[in-house]
């Protein structure tokens, strides 16, 4: 006879199996989740839906792999840009390093402001002053020498707030997104206003994006034979500014295909998102990272000197671009 005792015994046998099954199911789900640092909110759902639609054979939105191009801004989209752009921090350190060779800088702006730690005067020098700093501190050497200077600086420099190397202050959710897209046949590019040769030495290691898939601003270079060796020497002249309207131009020149997905965080990315998304079929995705988390990172948008998000934020409401709220949409900011 099947008694209460049998029921109890059966329950004791079954419960561990059920618990184990639930645990395995949860574990499998966690392992299969391609974006574990994202909360299950609108932006994550928009990404997954878009990727599934364009990569699934038979879908009305299916896109062939060669046409699955995704472009990403760097500063403020993939890594921190406050309290200043990382490349600007690099340039300021270079001024201090080179100052003993240039005693005249003690009385010449914007170099005097840098040496005096006068950030207000430096900011007042505007784009012209900052460009002069970049030209002087980034030129006058071979491309190989510059790569070594960048690599050495990144190995020792620390962010003033987080006390960590800048290459550790990349956004874990975006690193996962890059990997997720590549796993689904996308080719990922960085399209940044930052210097292309400042980024290329480290983007492959940090983001998985090889140097040939990095587009950025550049200064002119010239070929020279130096000690019977062929070299490219960096000149203090602007070659190309890959920002704002320059981004679609750079994409066209370097990629030769219109992307179907674009990710940015500021008005400097407005034209890139317009170029990517306002082109009709196939399905397209535009996304803006909105810095809303003052506790874990920073909170800023319309009123900031670095990464201003104003016109692009307004455009998002009209175009239907997805806006990522850092505070609410990301479980974590940086890799632990």
From TrEMBL:
A single GO molecular function term of this UniProt record: hydrolase activity
Pfam families from the UniProt entry: HAD (PF12710)
Top-level division of the source organism's lineage: Bacteria
Protein name per its UniProtKB record: Phosphoserine phosphatase
Signal peptide span: 1-30
InterPro entries: HAD-like_SerB (IPR050582), HAD-like_sf (IPR036412), HAD_sf (IPR023214)
Database matches in PANTHER family: PHOSPHATASE RV3661-RELATED, PHOSPHOSERINE PHOSPHATASE
């Amino acid at each position: 006879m099947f008694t209460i005792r049998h029921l109890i015994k059966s329950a004791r046998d079954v419960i561990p199996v059920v618990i184990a099954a639930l645990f395995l199911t949860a574990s499998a789900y966690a392992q299969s989740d391609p974006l574990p640092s994202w909360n299950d909110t609108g932006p994550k759902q928009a990404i997954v839906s878009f990727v599934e639609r364009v990569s699934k054979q038979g879908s009305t939105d299916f896109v062939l792999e060669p046409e699955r191009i995704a472009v990403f801004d760097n500063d403020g989209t993939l890594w921190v840009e406050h309290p200043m752009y990382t490349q600007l921090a690099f340039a300021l350190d270079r001024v201090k390093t080179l100052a003993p060779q240039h005693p005249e800088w003690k009385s010449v702006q914007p170099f005097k402001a840098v040496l005096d730690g006068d950030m207000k005067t430096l900011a007042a020098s505007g784009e012209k002053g900052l460009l002069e700093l970049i030209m002087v501190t980034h030129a006058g050497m071979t491309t190989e020498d510059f790569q070594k200077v960048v690599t050495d600086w990144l190995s020792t420099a620390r962010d003033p707030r987080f006390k960590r190397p800048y290459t550790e202050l990349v956004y874990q959710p975006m690193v996962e997104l890059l990997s997720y897209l590549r796993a689904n046949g996308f080719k990922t590019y960085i399209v940044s206003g930052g210097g292309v040769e400042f980024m290329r030495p480290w983007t492959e290691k940090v983001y998985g994006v090889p140097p040939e898939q990095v587009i950025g601003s550049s200064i002119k270079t010239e070929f020279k034979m130096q000690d019977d060796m062929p070299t490219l020497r960096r000149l203090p002249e602007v070659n190309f500014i890959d920002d704002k309207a320059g981004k679609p131009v750079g994409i066209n020149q370097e990629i030769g295909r219109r992307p179907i997905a674009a990710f940015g965080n500021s008005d400097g990315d407005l034209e890139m998102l317009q170029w990517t998304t306002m082109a009709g079929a196939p399905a397209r995705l535009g996304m803006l990272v909105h810095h809303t988390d003052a506790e874990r990172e920073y909170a800023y948008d319309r009123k900031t000197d670095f990464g201003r998000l104003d016109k692009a934020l307004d455009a998002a409401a009209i175009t239907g671009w997805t806006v990522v709220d850092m505070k609410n949409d990301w479980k974590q900011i940086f890799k632990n």
